[in-house]
Amino acid sequence: MDKAYIQIYTGNGKGKTTASLGLCLRALSCGMRVFYGQFLKSGESSEFSILKEFEKFDYRSFGPARFICGRGPSEEELKAALESIENIITSVSSGNYDIIVLDEIFPALNAGLIPESAVENIVKSRNESTELILTGRGAPESIIAMADLVTEMREIRHYWEKGVSARKGIEK
């Protein structure tokens, strides 16, 4: 890769994780090494069964494997999240990966799991040869200002409003 950039996929619309996974699949198909770190999710979605087959794909789940709604994080959750920041900074700065995705990092920040300064440190620690993709609703302006590409997914209409649950192969 000639030059690596910092990308953000944010907004209230569907497609942030899907876009990052599409980028990963493209990179893996070109022989690139990919690290996919996921906050607030378990990694049990259908796509990970095939992605984990790629030798150059590394996956880690950080923090609780669920969204934190209506309560603050527990001491145990905070400790695990802060430990994950150290691991992420090591990976981001190593130069061992062509692509690093930190999926749902902004909801983790907004839930109080990780401080904004930690996300800023992750971005500042990035090896120049590593493309860094950050996803999730509620990207703060300070992080947006550090990015080279920012895409905002905007929901116009969604069938979940009609009670449609996540469907295997489509949303999970």
Please, could you describe this protein's structure?
The protein is of the alpha/beta class and 172 residues long. The chain is 35% helix and 18% strand. The protein has a single domain, classed as Rossmann fold (3-Layer(aba) Sandwich), CATH 3.40.50.300. It has a six-stranded parallel sheet, with helices on both faces. Helix 2 links the parallel strand 2 and strand 3. Helix 3 runs parallel beside helix 5. The two termini are 31 Å apart.
CATH superfamily, please? P-loop containing nucleotide triphosphate hydrolases
The number of distinct β-strands equals: 6
Estimate the mean pLDDT confidence: 89
Which sheet architecture does the biggest sheet show? Answer: 6 strands, parallel
User: For the largest beta sheet, what order do the strands appear in spatially?
Assistant: 3-2-4-5-1-6
In CATH, the topology is named Rossmann fold
Give the termini separation.
Answer: 31 Å
**What is the CA-based Rg, rounded?**
15 Å
Low-confidence stretches: none
Oligomer: single chain
Helix content: 25-40%
**Number of helices, counting only DSSP H or I runs of 4 residues or more:** 6
Helix-strand string:
EHEHEHEHHEHE
What is the CATH C-level name?
Answer: Alpha Beta
Q: What best-fitting shape do the alpha-carbon axes yield?
A: globular
Sheet/helix structural class: alpha/beta
Count of domains: 1
Do you know the CATH architecture?
Answer: 3-Layer(aba) Sandwich
